[in-house]
Amino acid sequence: MKAIIIMDDVFTHRVYPDYLIKELKEDIEFVSKPLTNDELLKNLDILSEVDFIFSGWGGPKFEKDVLDAAPNLKMVFYGAGTIKNIVTNTFWEKGIRITTANAANAIAVSEYTLAAIIFGLKNALTMNQQLNDTKTYPEPGKRNIRGAFKVKIGLISLGAIARELLKLFENFDFEVIAYDPFITQEEADRLGVVLVDLDTLFKESDVVSLHTPLLDSTRGMIRKKHFLSMKGNTTFINTARGAVVNEEEMIEALRERKDISAYLDVVYPEPPKKSSPLYEMKNVFLTPHIAGSEGNEVTRMGDLMVKEFKAYLAGEKLKYEVNKEDYERMA
């Protein structure tokens, strides 16, 4: 069996370090050193005998020319998150399988989200601004801090990240409500969440955390009215996609409701325009799309793909394989 690694060379040895390569070589032969996508496109013939492609950020888009050059390709192991921008109809038509490290990436995003939830419930953003402005500590009892006990957390969409987050919530006394039109009542009961409509979620939650994939049907779905309906001194978190929120309306709402803290790891466009008010707004905590795997965290994704490969060889069901139906709902 033959394989190749194709991805951005900045990440290759971080996602697939030597110890993982050594483990893979116990079962497969690599036809070349790891290649970048540009290197591959200059030498598509190298795919002629390849059975498996290991990839990640900066990997190839599986269009007809690439797939025609790889007649033996059986499976792609994608050591990154969403496959939305790399898979094509031709890929599905050829019956090639793919598994993704989206679940491993979800761990990092869920940890970032939990940190933002705790900071939000501690009113940390406002406390920091007040401290910087006044150079004094606010008096106890006048800090508008809810605290992380017996509060209501609203999750918008219950995909991989939200489900990882629910595992982390087991250490907290949170009531969790959720909006997800694809989830059955039976599934919600199993997850321990109460399903509500979107308007109710915003009105009742102490923290709202957005995890919705960007689809035509979800673009701009979070509107000004949702923010204005939130309770006082509440928190909004977005680690999903910036375009799910109507950003202009969000900015208007956050200007009116300075008691709402917004933790935004994603915006639209990215980065925001230099003239964007988001840079200056005191109730906005802006980070440059870092919630996903960074640093040592990226190796977790490669490790997961090696585990999936071992399961494939053993004829076992792959935990993280994506079929066409799953793909059409992905961000």
Describe the structure.
Strands 8-7-6-9-10-11-12 form a seven-stranded parallel sheet, sandwiched between helices. Strands 2-1-3-4-5 form a five-stranded parallel sheet, covered by helices on one side. The model has no long low-confidence stretch (mean pLDDT 96). It has 331 residues and is an alpha/beta fold. Helix content is 36%, strand content 15%. Residues 13-323 form the D-isomer specific 2-hydroxyacid dehydrogenase catalytic domain. It comes from Alkalibacterium gilvum. It holds the Pfam family 2-Hacid_dh_C. This is Phosphoglycerate dehydrogenase.
Instruction: Extract low-pLDDT stretches.
Output: none
Could you give me the name of the CATH homologous superfamily of the largest domain?
A: NAD(P)-binding Rossmann-like Domain
Major sheet: 7 strands, parallel
Give the rounded overall mean pLDDT.
96
CATH-derived topology of the largest domain: Rossmann fold
List strands and helices in order, with pairings.
Blueprint: E1 2-6, H1 12-15, H2 18-24, E2 29-30, H3 37-41, E3 52-55, H4 64-68, E4 75-78, H5 89-93, E5 97-100, H6 102-121, H7 124-134, E6 151-156, H8 160-168, E7 174-179, H9 185-191, E8 194-195, H10 198-204, E9 207-210, H11 224-228, E10 235-238, H12 247-256, E11 261-264, E12 284-286, H13 297-313, H14 324-329
Parallel strand pairs: 1-2, 1-3, 3-4, 4-5, 6-7, 6-9, 7-8, 9-10, 10-11, 11-12
Helix pairs in contact: 6-8, 6-13
GO molecular function: NAD binding; oxidoreductase activity, acting on the CH-OH group of donors, NAD or NADP as acceptor
Protein name: Phosphoglycerate dehydrogenase
Keywords: NAD, Oxidoreductase
